[in-house]
């Protein structure tokens, strides 16, 4: 075990996966010599060489398109898109090819591509550097979307994504890159994709989130405890496929109450999907209308007002109290 | 059949001033003395802004900034040659262009201090807000140029971008479209040697960026981007061609990014400080000043007066930006021309939660 930040855990995971499988390669803008703008790929090029750790020209569409050819021909590319706002430049290839080649080739062509990208606000960065894009890609059949919230899950989920057989959008929580530390095993391990994690047992309200929002969510659960409300806190960890082992449904059957916290704009988001599934599967257990605490349906503001967009403890706590009081 | 040559081409490089500030007589532009001095004053002012923006970020008084030191001649010359109603599509590194177009300096500081109001398009121009998705703005310029042509308003469009951006599909698609329709557009590529850490030679195996124009049947030229007179020469020619309906031009302006990529970047990771030394000799603040001095248009006294005036101007702009306040609830206001019912509900909820 080593005490690590999230970025160190991701870096360690990349080292480990590239070490254990010679077909894993990394590519992206400034990832080689520079080690990535956040240093996620630090030391990879020195260790594995320029052929396996590729500094690409500045062209996201090409980074993903090239990865598709590489994947078809037997490599496991791990492209980095420098910031989440620029994943869209490669949208055509992700949606029309990564997601569909297995289907279109009748199972002959797999697309083992792990698209890493930082995500989420709160770092006072420029526009387009802070978006949460999980809903956009979770909406596309054939893609997987993973959103770790801590160093342990980040390393384990990254290993699962890289070893997997389909394209995974791996959203790294930028504001938790360096702000949290946790014990991470030095040896190899995987965290399964599609399995949510019950982080805190509770009986009153089921409180669900993922990615960078887990921090505020757990802090709010602490506060709720002071008010006598014990939340069952669930970290989705994977957005698609969503909660394959029914942790949320099982929890709501117990608590009868659900609050979902999402950083992205409210409308048409993951929270809506979580609530819809609970309505479909556990309606008879509900004692209160499921609620969501989300970013607003606007652009994430620039640095000065950014924190008014991202759901904070106060908003989450208010929702939890309201839900508990029904 | 014997082989024949289907195509061959060459690319001109234009440089007017030597390191001592002597101008090549055959290329020296005919600008009034007043305009020659004016450009020096504007470039000096923009540089002071640039350094201030970096220092404010370092002091935690503003957010991430992408400095342009070394690229002033390109941006300021372009601004001086445009008509107010021509269309410009700048990237995040074009603050000097914005200032030279008449944007209030306080507005740019307001933006850097994290307020959306600082992004408003400056009055009296059609310029787009600084674009951050690399290369995207290149492809907007041909659209504006097409509209200008169709509307017969005589206006041209220009796009700024870097060497890295020339790897994006948008660059190629923009050149291609404008070539086919012979549009009144000028593409200004600032080759400042780097895209963050990635050196120019890793963007393309092509010897120059200018020569890529040939693949799209448009005019291409390379120039010394740190030489204000070379920029005047190539940009005035390119803008004239556009205005006369002679089609688009790709200008590759060679420069050096003296600063970091952004205030979040540490260039020590990928380049030696000493690498900048030969480029410093080419800086307009050295070369162009010598040129003005030779012409009797500049001396130490006026320089001292200018330095003092600039400090006052910059400090006043910072003070104004620091006074600026907005309500966070403005984030709801410009999403749609007419606020949706759902957004009205959310704005009301926001006010209730934060009392704002
Ligand atoms: C589409 C996109 N990809 C990546 C980035 C991150 N990024 C910002 S600037 C930059 C380098 C751009 O280099 P260049 O085009 O040469 O312009 P310069 O920054 O040197 O002015 C990168 C990779 C971005 N802003 N947009």
Name the descriptors.
heterodimer, A: 326 residues, alpha/beta, Rossmann fold, 2 domains, 4-stranded mixed β-sheet, 14 strands, 20% strand, B: 356 residues, 6-stranded parallel β-sheet
Q: For the CA atoms, what is the radius of gyration of chain B?
A: 22 Å
**How many strand elements of chain A?**
14
State the end-to-end distance of chain B: 80 Å
Overall average residue pLDDT of chain A: 98
CATH homologous superfamily identity of the largest domain in chain A: Thiamin diphosphate (ThDP)-binding fold, Pyr/PP domains
What is the helix content of chain A? 25-40%
Give the ordered list of helices and strands of chain A: EHEHEHEHHEHEHEEEEHEEHEHEH
Category by helix and strand content of chain B: alpha/beta
Measure the end-to-end span of chain A.
44 Å
Q: Architecture of the largest domain in chain A in CATH?
A: 3-Layer(aba) Sandwich
Q: What does this entry look like structurally?
A:
The complex is a heterodimer of chains A (326) and B (356). Chain A is of the alpha/beta class and 326 residues long. Helices cover 34% and strands 20% of the residues of chain A. The longest helix of chain A has 15 residues, at 6-20. The mean pLDDT of chain A is 98. In chain B, helix 1 packs across helix 10 (300-323), helix 4 (105-112) packs across helix 10 (300-323) and helix 5 packs parallel to helix 6. Chain B has two domains: 12-325, Rossmann fold (3-Layer(aba) Sandwich); 328-356, no CATH class. Chain B has a six-stranded parallel sheet with strand order 1-7-8-4-3-2. A two-stranded antiparallel sheet of chain B has the order 5-6. Chain B has helices spanning 33-58, 72-81, 95-100, 105-112, 141-151, 169-180, 228-243, 277-280, 284-294, 300-323, 341-354, and strands spanning 12-14, 87-89, 157-162, 185-191, 194-195, 198-199, 219-224, 249-254. Chain A binds chain B through residues 29-30, 33-35, 37, 55, 57-59, 61-62, 85-86, 89, 124-129, 266-267, 296-299, 301-306, 308-309, 314-315, 318, and chain B through 63-64, 92, 111, 113-116, 132-135, 164-165, 167-169, 195-198, 202-204, 264-265, 269-270, 326, 328, 330-332, 335, 340, 342-343, 346, 350, 353-354, 356. The complex binds thiamine diphosphate. Thiamine diphosphate sits between chains B (93, 132-134, 161-165, 192, 194-196, 257, 261) and A (29, 58, 60, 82-83, 86, 89).
């Amino acid at each position: 075990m080593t005490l690590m930040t999230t970025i160190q855990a991701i870096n360690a995971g990349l080292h480990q996966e590239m070490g254990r499988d010679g077909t894993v390669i990394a590519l992206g803008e400034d990832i080689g010599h520079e080690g990535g703008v956040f240093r996620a790929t630090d030391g990879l090029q020195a260790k594995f060489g320029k052929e396996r750790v590729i500094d690409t020209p500045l062209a996201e569409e090409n980074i993903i398109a090239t990865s598709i050819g590489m994947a078809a021909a037997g490599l496991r590319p791990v492209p980095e898109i420098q910031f989440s706002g620029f994943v869209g430049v490669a949208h055509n290839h992700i949606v029309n090819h990564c997601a569909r080649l297995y289907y279109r080739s009748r199972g002959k062509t797999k697309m083992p591509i792990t698209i890493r990208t930082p995500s989420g606000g709160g770092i006072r960065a420029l526009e387009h550097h802070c978006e949460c894009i999980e809903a956009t890609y979770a909406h596309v059949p054939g893609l997987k979307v993973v959103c770790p919230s801590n160093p342990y899950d980040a390393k384990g989920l990254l290993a699962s994504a890289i070893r997997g057989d389909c394209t995974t959008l791996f959203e790294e929580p930028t504001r938790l890159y360096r702000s949290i530390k946790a014990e991470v095993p030095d040896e190899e391990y995987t965290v399964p994709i599609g399995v949510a994690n019950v982080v805190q047992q509770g009986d009153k309200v089921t409180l669900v989130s993922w990615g960078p929002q887990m921090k505020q969510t757990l802090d709010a659960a602490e506060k709720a405890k002071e008010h006598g409300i014990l939340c069952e806190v669930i970290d989705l960890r994977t957005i698609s496929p969503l909660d394959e082992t029914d942790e949320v449904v099982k929890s709501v059957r117990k608590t009868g109450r659900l609050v979902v916290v999402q950083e992205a704009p409210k409308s048409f988001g993951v929270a809506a999907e979580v609530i819809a599934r609970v309505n479909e599967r556990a309606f008879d257990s509900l004692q209160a209308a499921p609620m969501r605490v989300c970013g607003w349906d606007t652009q994430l503001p620039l640095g000065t007002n950014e924190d008014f967009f991202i759901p904070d403890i106060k908003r989450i706590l208010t929702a939890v109290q309201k839900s508990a009081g029904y | 059949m014997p082989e024949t040559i289907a195509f061959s081409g060459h690319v001109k490089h234009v440089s007017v001033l030597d390191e001592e500030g002597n101008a090549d007589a055959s290329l020296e532009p005919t600008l009034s003395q007043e305009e020659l001095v004016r450009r020096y004053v504007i470039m000096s002012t923009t540089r002071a802004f640039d350094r201030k923006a970096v220092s404010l970020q370092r002091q935690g008084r503003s957010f991430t900034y992408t400095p342009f030191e070394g690229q002033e001649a390109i941006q300021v010359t372009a601004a001086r040659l445009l008509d107010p109603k021509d269309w410009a599509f700048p990237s995040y590194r074009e603050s000097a262009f914005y200032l030279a177009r008449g944007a209030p300096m306080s507005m740019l500081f307001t933006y850097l201090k994290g307020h959306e109001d600082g992004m408003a398009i400056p009055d009296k121009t059609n310029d787009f807000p600084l674009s951050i998705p690399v290369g995207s703005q290149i492809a907007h310029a041909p659209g504006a140029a097409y509209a200008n042509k169709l509307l017969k308003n005589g206006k041209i469009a220009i796009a700024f971008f870097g060497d890295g951006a020339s790897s994006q599909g948008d660059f190629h698609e923009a050149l291609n479209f404008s070539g086919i329709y012979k549009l009144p557009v000028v593409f200004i590529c600032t080759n400042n040697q780097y895209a963050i850490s990635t050196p120019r030679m890793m963007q393309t195996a092509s010897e120059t960026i200018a020569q890529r124009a040939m693949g799209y049947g448009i005019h291409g030229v390379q120039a010394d981007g740190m030489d204000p007179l070379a920029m005047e020469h190539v940009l005035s020619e390119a803008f004239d061609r556009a205005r006369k309906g002679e089609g688009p031009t790709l200008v590759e302006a060679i420069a050096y990014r003296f600063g970091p990529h952004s205030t979040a970047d540490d260039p020590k990771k990928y380049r030696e400080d000493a690498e900048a030394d030969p480029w410093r000799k080419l800086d307009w603040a050295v070369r162009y000043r010598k040129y003005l001095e030779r012409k009797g248009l500049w001396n130490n006294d006026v320089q001292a007066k200018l330095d003092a005036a600039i400090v006052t101007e910059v400090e006043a702009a910072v003070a104004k930006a620091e006074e600026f306040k907005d309500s966070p609830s403005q984030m709801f206001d410009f999403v749609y021309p007419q606020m949706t019912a759902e957004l009205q509900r959310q704005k009301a909820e926001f006010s209730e939660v934060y009392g704002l």
